[in-house]
Write a structure and sequence with these properties.
The complex is a heterodimer of chains A (228) and B (147). With 228 residues, chain A is mainly α. Chain A contains twelve helices and no strands. In chain A, helix 7 runs antiparallel to helix 8 and helix 11 crosses helix 12. Chain B is extended, with a radius of gyration of 21 Å. Chain B has 147 residues and is mostly helical. Classes of the chains: A mainly alpha (228), B mainly alpha (147). At the A-B interface, helix 2, helix 3, helix 4, helix 5 and helix 6 of A face helix 1, helix 2, helix 3, helix 4 and helix 5 of B.
Amino acid sequence: MLANILQQPTTWLTITLGAYLLGLKLYQGLNQASWLPPVLSGFLIVTSLLWVTDTPYAVYEQGGQLLSFFLGPVVVGLAVPLFYHAHKMKKQFITILVAITVGSLTTVGIAIALTHYWIGIDIITTTMASKSVTTPVAVAIAEQTGGISALAAAFVMTTGIIGAAIIPQLLKIFRLDSPQATGISLGVCAHAVGTSRAIELGQEYAAYSAMAMTVTAGLHALLLPWLL
Amino acid sequence: MVDTLDLGSSAVRCESSSLSFRTKIKNENMLAGLFALLVFLILGEAIQSWIAIPVPGSIIGMALLLIVIISRNKSPKNIEIAANKLAPLLPLFIIPISAGLITQADIIQQHGFKLLAILTISLIPGALVTALILKMGNRLANKSSNK
């Protein structure tokens, strides 16, 4: 009977929802620690359950895709914050845009080059290109360019967690830290998780970070598919 | 959580705080907004397959919506409500795709450490370059405004 239940899309949809809620509880319990975002704990719970029950991903996906469906409208909805951010940064528009463009292409360029020389598997290199944008956009880019969307999501999550941990400290060492510089660097390099770190640092940091990650996402989605 | 604010919805939420009352009408607005987002998504995908550009359909949809918002110089309330309601749930929407990593165990086993190293190393110049350009840009701006 259990085996039968584990084949149902509803079961896995419910498990995913439960895993997310549990992850959210954990995140709040840990004082919103940026190293354990709900998406990571939720992911760990779901994958360990899949592994323990020996359920093929294809079965899980039938339930899971009901949630993935919403990524489309979420990406379209990014136009709203993008509009507000563009409004606010009018004065320094050029400087900020240049910094975001050059900075984000630097980190992606180096990552692509390293992957190409160290690993040399084209599909991983292609997927690596979308590592610096927020997950829904990264997944869309990976699908578009023939990368692996699950791997793209993993790269994004890992980058975010490492970036959130090291960037504020790194910029302090080089005396480059300021609400603007640290906020924007966090947004460019560590997108979502970085922005949650920026919120801990202060409101000004958070505003710059949220703006930088939205701009990076839009920019890369428009640029990368042509370059790859 | 994390992915919520990265969408900048927090900033937006402040500006639309007058919308926070809970009524039946709000749910209808939310659905109307979701409907509009889906229409833009479909339009984006239609354009994408029509002129065969490699940009994801959802991004084209976003660009279309952005054009509409800019031309009205104001984002439609329904859409704003739907976007702000969906954004905080992003981590939930991402879990199923992330779980697909289970099918990529080979890659992780073989190249996991290298990939981790690449992701870490590539962050450093990215952050430094971004911060440096901002510093130089601000210095230039200050100079020109002092003259």
